[in-house]
Amino acid sequence: MGKGFKSLVTRCIYVGKMDDNMKKLKIATEELKDLGNSVMKRVKICEEQQQMKRLDKVQTWLRQADIVIKEAEEYFLMSSSSSHGLISSSHKMEKKICKKLKEVQEIKSKGMFEIVAESIGGGIGGGGGGSVVKDSDEQTVGLEAVSGLVWRCLTMENTGIIGLYGVEGVGKTTVLTQVNNRLLQQKGNGFDFVLWVFVSKNLNLEKIQDTIREKIGFLDRTWTSKTEEEKASKIFEILSKRRFALFLDDVWEKVDLVKAGVPPPDAQNRSKIVFTTCSEEVCKEMSAQTKIKVEKLAWERAWDLFKKNVGEDTVKNHPDIAKVAQEVAARCDGLPLALVTIGRAMASKKTPQEWRDALYILSTSPPNFSVLKLLDRN
């Protein structure tokens, strides 16, 4: 009677421990599932939206997490179908559950990744964090030399910050786009990250930080609760260990990149910063080692670009159109953006009167979006 009672008590203790650990295993497994889903979501964003490649260690962790989750779920099935049986079998099962619980907890502890992806090519090329910016080939006429100059600057050791300046519509963004896309499309370009940030007139440092952190694959849930200084520290921590090319489009005033967390380019990190601005003064304020002025197109180039977008058939549709078309093109003042957009707007105008109306509109207002609406209406 004594032995039987003692056996019963012992079995109850084992079963109690097993049930307690089984509950802990279920909770830990659910937490691991949630963490795995979060990591996979971040990976998908990097792969599908930013053309990045998941890190090998992240892929290994996801595979290990999947295996241990399936093994834990098998234990749950065994537990639900078991009546706990003999003391020896209960004790063995309890030990297995403890061991599996430790495995789940260990894998969960290793899944807190700051970065989940890198540039295609193992972090030495392909432009991690970058995305190809939509470009129009028609706008590149006359800008090839400038693009080539910027490209050469990316290979120069003593040039870390490059400023492109010129009047609005002259093609600065087109040049920046060309260089960004060329860098991303070239395998083994030497950069871990190729980052594109649109700055705009209303400077917002926190918005710049948010754009950078998305492109470098840091998607921590606590990001929104961090201060500007904490965000800067985290960005600096990541970028200071990598070589990056940062493209800033439409800069109107000095951007304090150090305050944003961007390490200054130097001979050690060999990183590059290229920006566009309308002001040469901003180039000085941004400490650009190389300043490149983007000039307006010469008349021959401007006329060729305009005709290409209007279409030869339209220009030759009536003898009077060709002459007026030249005057309309001249009103675009050698600005590629105006030549392309107005040229396209005039492609459907087949009568001399429509062209004379367009010339009148351009004579009274500089080419802008309001003018384009008028041209489309006429």
UniProtKB/TrEMBL annotation:
**Record-annotated NB-ARC domain positions:** 150-315
GO MF: ATP binding
- Report TM segments: none
Output the superkingdom of the source species.
Answer: Eukaryota
**Keyword tags:** ATP-binding, Nucleotide-binding, Plant defense
Q: What GO biological process terms does the UniProt entry carry, in alphabetical order?
A: defense response
SUPFAM superfamilies per UniProt: P-loop containing nucleoside triphosphate hydrolases
State the protein's name.
Answer: Disease resistance protein
Per the UniProt entry, what species is this protein from, by scientific name?
Cardamine amara subsp. amara
